[in-house]
Amino acid sequence: MKQLLVITMAVAVLASCSKDQDPIIVVPPSNGSQLTLNGGNGGASAENAVYVDFSADKQDSTKEQAGS
Known about the structure:
The chain is of the alpha+beta class. It is built from one helix and two strands. The protein has a domain of 36 residues. A two-stranded antiparallel ribbon has the order 1-2. A hairpin with a 4-residue loop joins strand 1 and strand 2. It is elongated, with a radius of gyration of 27 Å.
């Protein structure tokens, strides 16, 4: 019974060792575009919350509600 447990554990350990390699993802360089956020002055008195979609190079701002 003890040998069966040892053999089972050895097979499990060897089977879990995979030689597959993760693909290397090449990220293209930025084109250097600039985006000015329209969120107001910022800090505790910020007028808006700004959400940026970097893939589309655009922003969406929403008015902050009092007490948020």
